[in-house]
Amino acid sequence: MGAAMNLVTEPADRVLVVTRVFDAPRELVFKAWTQPEHMARWFGPAGFTSKVLKHDLRPGGQYRIHMLGPDGDHWTQGVYREVVPPARLVMVGSWADANGKPTRPETTLTLMFEDVGGKTKLTLHNAVFESVTARDLHNGGWSSSLDCLAEYLATV
Hints:
By secondary structure, the chain is α+β, with helices and mostly antiparallel strands. It contains 3 helices and 7 strands, in the order E-H-H-E-E-E-E-E-E-H. The model has no long low-confidence stretch (mean pLDDT 94).
């Protein structure tokens, strides 16, 4: 008998997919996501400032980012799973407290960077959230963050 195929499906209501086209070359958009000096200038929703505390950009490498927003401190951290410049970036991470203890379940963030005539189509896939509410909150945060990225890329 042949081996059974094990397919894992994501619950569609707890998956976030955002697509955005940036007026910047793919290599620059990829650098904005992967170089701390760029990330500190845009990462996080409007009104937030960010500091990259740990950044080991390689499969198995860790990251940790501190964001300060109007409502206080936020930390996100995790591990890079795939780094394929300038096309793909995959990381698994979660929100954490100041000491690095996770405060939310992990999600996987997959970023795909596609060249479209000198511009960059970014597809952000973030899953699986613990609830629809968590997905919707992240949709607002990512949308605002991508607006900040677009503003930053216009100045580089």
